[in-house]
Amino acid sequence: MVQGQREAAVAAIDLPMKRLQPAGPLMRRLGQSLAILPAYQSATVLADAPPAFTEVGLRYSRYSEDSLERDKRIFGSEDRYDIDITQLWIEAPVGASWSVALDMQNDYQSGASPWFVGAQADSEPGVIMSGASIQDNRVEVGITTRYFWADGNAGFAISHSNEDDYEATALSFDASWNSVDNSRTWSSSFSSSHDSVRPTQGVIPVFIESDELDTQSVYFGVSQILSKTAVARIGLNYTYSEGYLSDPYKLMDERPNTHERLALSLGYRRFFIDFDASLQADYRYYADSWGTDSHAIELGWAQNLSRGLLTPYLRYYTQRQADFFDVIADTTKAYHADDYRLSSYGAVTLGARWSLALSDQWTLELEAERYETSRGWGLYSGEEAPALVDFWRGTIALIWRFE
Amino acid sequence: MGGPALLVIDSAPRAQHSVASILDQVVELLASLESRFSRYRPESLISQINQRAGSGDYTELDTEAHGLFELAGQLWTESGGLFDITSGPLRHAWDFRAGGKAAVENIRQALELVGFGRIEWRGTTCHLPQAGMEVDLGGIAKEYAVDRTAALLRGAGVTSGLVELAGDVAVIGAQGDETPWSIGIQDPHGPNSLCSVSLVDAALATSGNYARTLAYNGKKYGHLLDPRSGWPVSGPDSVSVIDAHCLTAGAVATVACLKHQDQAVDWLRDSQLPWLLCNAGMRPVGPIAGALSASVGGSQ
């Protein structure tokens, strides 16, 4: 964990250059003893040098929401969103100090989403779904350049995304520094984006033709090596948005035109030599100017296997509803919304990631997770939004690294 | 450290200091390591620990020394007790310089003073419980010095360089012309190189049983002793290992030389590192051996 990257290239005469394999269990155990010695704490040149190889990756993800329960639906499609996400990325070193990355993503969404929540005959709230299935394709392209020096690195990225009804352009800048003994890393980032929304007039009436919003975000964090087997980190993020922040596809949705968000995150990683595995623990607290706050905790166990890494994980999330949220939106208030994403609820995710080295150059990654929400699992009071969603997500990725 | 040193700096585009000043820093570093870890220096940390054996006085280990002792302990465990930095008394019993003629009683007495597990610890201070016990970091200090020197060079902005201390090598980057460093592996049975390996940001360490030998009852033995039995091991003549660091490569090679051939091969396979094992009367084996051309192999 605290070892320098195994960047050695080895060849004997007549054989092509090969990389050293990632450290086997014996060498990992021996490496633990060395972690406190200055000569081995992620060698400065390697820790902040561009990747030694070019990486090309292709990832496909399918996100599929469960159908809406019959007794929660008043009208409209019971099928909810399915999204197919395809990502292609290339990252390559350029010279001795730079790297460049290109990221492309295509999301294909189909399905229906809640239009508004009304009262059913038995006065229980129910969802009126948007009628026919929406089909929408979003394409996003981003470029990042990164510069490395002995004690750190800095990156600059620009991205643009486009779909029928939404367009966004974002810039970001990030930098990180290592302390002299490499036991501490400071990181920071700043980003700014400009979005414009042109809702599609169609199946459901929308009331704006076009509008815009701007977002700026700042992050600051520190990561500290605690011992030869443990690392901890803390980070703080502040985001400010201004502009049109409501959901144009919801009948009764009027949100303030500013939104401030603060998030505190803590992370801890501990490697257990005897198990050849790491415990990963993360906690995040979030609070915003709309009255929502939330806690998220995730635990994972990254188990080294003979040729790969298997990480099952469990995540718990609980959120307090926004000030202006009501299960059935109260249109007499200046700000009102019935979007289930602003309600009080708790959610549990159970998933696993498996990263498998197929050869020196090729890696396969698989991930699957199940997410379920319920007002009853949350710590905060509030009425349960009928449109709370449960979903499956599966991902497969193939990564090729070469010189 | 008792051996020749070679330092090559090929390219240091971002160096903050002059090459001469870098060399001065290296000399200072090596002198400092020697004065702390050499058992031949009476004022060294190692000598202090040895002098206090059996006295009840604990010696404080700084972070670096503690790390090296930790590694020694890890190797002692992983090798099943074969790698043992407390085996000094056994060596004296065999008295190699005098040609090696150990009386069996001497070996038995010496064994009482050997055993890494006997070292007593209080936090980061240690103590040898019996007078006559000794620790000696000879099996790892030299390789560690290579790695420290390489780290110093890297920190000073060297992007292409080579460090060699008495046969153990670490290279920084590739050569100035971007071709890998070509490092020869000595033939244990002859004066020539067996083969060359191409290294970039890697280290090569060789451990061998062939440099010094002793004769006992008309039989020839290598100088490596099994600290559990007291007798010389019949291990391979030499083992070379490549890893990102010299210390880990050297540790793996040294333990391999303490084992019988088959067990040495299993051990080397477990390390998942490139290795080469040489024994008299057979062709060299190991992943590196794939490179040996037929003509070189026939030079024996």
User: Any idea what the radius of gyration of chain A is?
Assistant: 24 Å
Biggest interface and its residues per chain?
A: A-B, 37 and 51 residues
Structural category of chain A is mainly beta
CATH homologous superfamily of chain B - what is it? ApbE-like domains
Using only C-alpha atoms, the radius of gyration of chain B works out to 20 Å
| Spatial order of strands in the largest sheet of chain A | 3-5-6-9-10-11-12-13-14-15-16-17-18-19-20-21
Q: Could you say which overall geometry of chain A the principal axes of the C-alpha atoms support? A: globular
CATH architecture label name of chain B:
Roll
Features:
heterodimer, A: 403 residues, mainly beta, Porin, 16-stranded antiparallel β-barrel, three-stranded mixed β-sheet, 2 helices, 21 strands, 3% helix, disordered N terminus, B: 300 residues, alpha+beta, T-fold, six-stranded antiparallel β-sheet, three-stranded antiparallel β-sheet, 13 strands, 34% helix, globular, disordered C terminus
